[in-house]
Structures are given as C-alpha cells and as structure tokens.
Amino acid sequence: MVPNSVANRALRVTVSGELGPLGYHEAEWIPDFFVAIYATTRQRLDLDLWNYGYHSSPPWWSTTLPDHTSISYPEGTVIVDVVSPETLDILWRGSAAIALDHDPLENAKELVNAATAVIDRFPRARPIVIASPR
User: Fold this and answer.
1) I want to staple 7 with a disulfide (CB 3.0 to 4.6 A). Which of 55, 102, 108, 109 is the partner?
2) What confidence tens digit (pLDDT) does each residue in 27-67 have?
3) Do β-strands 77-83 and 34-40 pair in parallel, antiparallel, or remain unpaired?
4) pTM for the full model?
5) Residue partners of 38: CB distance under 8 A and separation at least 6
6) Phi-psi sector, 45: left (phi>0), alpha (psi -120 to 50), beta
7) Angle at which helices 6-19 and 104-120 cross, to 10°
8) What is the dihedral angle through the alpha carbons of 60, 62, 67, 72, rounded to the nearest 10 degrees?
9) What is the model's pLDDT at position 123?
10) H/E/C letters for each residue in 28-78?
C-alpha cells in the first residue's frame, strides 16, 4: 500500500482510534508495543518477502522447529501486528479480509471496517492502579 495514500492514512487513524477505548494510548518513550498495519487490494501479500524489522514467527508459535514457509494473504486483506519493542517478536496478529469492489473509495471504506473488526478482537488493557484509597 502506498504510504501516504488515503486508505493508508484512514487505516492508521482507525487503528489508533480503536485502541484508545481499549485502554491503549500512544507513547513516544518506552512504549509497551509497536503496531504495524498492512493491507492489500491489488495483489497477494507475502509478509516474508520484505524485512519489516521484526521476527515474523516468534518461538512460542510452534513447539517444533521454526517454520520457514511463507504465508500469502489474498487481495483485500488487512493485517495488524502488535510487536514487542524489546525482542521484536510478534505479540499478537489479527487479520480480516474484504470482498473487493471496482471502486477504490469503497475498497478503502471496507478496509477501514476490516481494521475495526481486527482491533475489536484485541485484548483490553488492564487498568493500572496508581494509588489506593485508605
């Protein structure tokens, strides 16, 4: 997806907006995790073809030897990865697919709806108790 496209910006705003009500907020310093968003409308998406800077399969995904086969996602897929800043392992991955239309604006709307559905499956943050009443 083109980095500054309308759909890309809409996906970023949507994911950020959906994480807020779950108790997560943006932090410049020492974040608990990073979020990576991928979407495709014109071709299949193979995340293993590119070096995104983090490990695509953390050790806990498999109890056997690491699987080096690539996973290809079909056109119309939104993927949200939550990545540990310390280990660069994926902590959580969610995906959703849409039926593509001939109208790019309609596809962008549907991708945003898919991103919302993905984040709806993300766990809610645990509240932090700063002080307790006496």
Assistant:
1) 108
2) 888 899 999 998 888 888 887 776 677 766 655 555 555 55
3) antiparallel
4) 0.80
5) 1, 45, 47, 77, 78, 79, 80, 81
6) beta
7) 20
8) -80
9) 93
10) CCCCCCEEEEEEECCCCEEHHHCCCCCECCCHHHCCCCCCCCCCEECCCEE
The per-residue pLDDT for range 96-133, each reduced to its tens digit, is 999 988 888 888 899 899 999 999 999 998 877 777 67
5 vs 26, 68, 120, CA distance in Å? 22, 32, 24
Pairing relation of β-strands 90-97 and 77-83?
Answer: antiparallel
Q: Please count the other Cβ atoms lying within 10 Å of the Cβ belonging to residue 84.
A: 16
As given in the structure block, the two tokens for residue 81 are 């990865």
Contacts of residue 124, Cβ cutoff 8 Å, sequence gap at least 6:
22, 23
For 116, phi and psi rounded to 5 degrees? -60, -45
